[in-house]
């Protein structure tokens, strides 16, 4: 097991991309250890017992603005067009979400165009020049009525905290559109791997230079495998240091997958329930995978305080704690050539395209450091 160039902890998007680049570009060998029983990390998709393809860890809508990134991934998959449409259930009716012109017309019961909609929102918005939290941010943009109908309840369920206790960026990520564009996201490329994410990431690591050990955690091999070039760690940062400074808090989710004997159960892939039920959203991923099948599966998503780490809880104290761990991680890179990459190790919510971008950068850093026989000074400069 010692005879490897890279030891990689985690077979998620980041681990797979780094192993692939190392094998293809440098001819390096990698040992990937993955604690779960599958590859592809949280992007993992699989055939449910009903015969319907599901996303086990929540819906993953692939999108990017970067054509080179799409070209890179195209070596491992074909694509189907993304069909990411979301509605919010409010007062018994379904509204397009994020809020667009159609949402506003339906909600206020009057005809609007871009100009009159902007005038309307300006008249409704609270005058808060520098919003200090998510509540103030949304109030300053759309006013109290829309805030209470679409944002408040969802945020309370999702985070288990009031929007006024969350940073502005938490709700600030959701656009408001003065057009009739009803797509969930704005990115230039919205496509899905035609055979799924697990197939795409599996294709990345088929090289004989890459060995993958499932159901094996980093802790199982730590100190036993001594890679020639570097270790890449994609697990939770605090766990790497045994929680020495305290735990970095994460929000978790529980999923309830229900099979229905009908072709489709809802009009689009995702319905948000800001004000009813314990779950935040229902997801019928068939709209996105475009699988043909006489039955369907709907996933009900319940936010949880405990469980697998899904979303870092955004708060200044948590960021400060992360920075202290980060300093320890930088020292580990400098002295032991351990590189920390991906969402868990950098305590951030990142989309899959951003995770892949980060993996490509991390690989380049490792390569440069290896070329100079020294992780120390170069890493410090790249940071
Ligand atoms: C609910 C949800 C919905 C999302 N929806 C989207 C979306 O619509 N579109 C999008 O682009 N992105 C989405 N994402 C983000 C996407 O999941 C991530 O960007 C991506 O998975 C990050 O890849 P990663 O390799 O950093 O981490 P992960 O995918 O988490 O992979 C890390 C891997 O490391 C393994 N691991 C952890 N610790 C250890 C250890 N000690 N030893 C061995 N293995 C270990 C884990 O089991 C995991 O397989 C979503 C995320 C969540 C939580």
Provide the fold topology.
Blueprint: E1 6-9, H1 13-26, E2 30-33, E3 45-47, E4 53-55, E5 63-64, H2 67-73, E6 79-81, E7 86-90, E8 93-97, H3 101-108, H4 114-124, H5 134-142, H6 144-159, H7 168-172, E9 189-193, H8 197-204, E10 210-213, H9 218-221, E11 230-233, H10 237-240, E12 250-260, E13 270-272, E14 281-283, H11 286-289, E15 296-304, E16 311-312, H12 316-336, E17 338-340, H13 352-371, H14 376-382
Parallel strand pairs: 1-2, 1-11, 2-10, 7-13, 11-17
Antiparallel strand pairs: 3-4, 5-9, 6-9, 7-8, 12-15, 12-16, 13-14, 14-15
Helix pairs in contact: 1-13, 5-6, 12-14
The structure holds flavin-adenine dinucleotide.
Residues 9-15, 33-36, 41-43, 58-62, 217-218, 234-235, 253, 310, 342-344, 350-353, 355 line the site of flavin-adenine dinucleotide.
Tags for this entry?
383 residues; alpha/beta; Rossmann fold; seven-stranded mixed β-sheet; five-stranded parallel β-sheet; globular; disordered C terminus; binds flavin-adenine dinucleotide
What does the model show?
With 383 residues, the protein is α/β, with parallel strands linked by helices. Among the domains are: 6-39 and 205-248 and 313-382, Rossmann fold (3-Layer(aba) Sandwich), CATH 3.40.50; 86-172, no CATH class. Helices cover 36% and strands 19% of the residues. It contains 14 helices and 17 strands. The protein has helices at 13-26, 67-73, 101-108, 114-124, 134-142, 144-159, 168-172, 197-204, 218-221, 237-240, 286-289, 316-336, 352-371, 376-382, and strands spanning 6-9, 30-33, 45-47, 53-55, 63-64, 79-81, 86-90, 93-97, 189-193, 210-213, 230-233, 250-260, 270-272, 281-283, 296-304, 311-312, 338-340. The chain has a 7-stranded mixed β-sheet. The chain is globular. It starts with 5 loop residues before the first strand and ends with a helix.
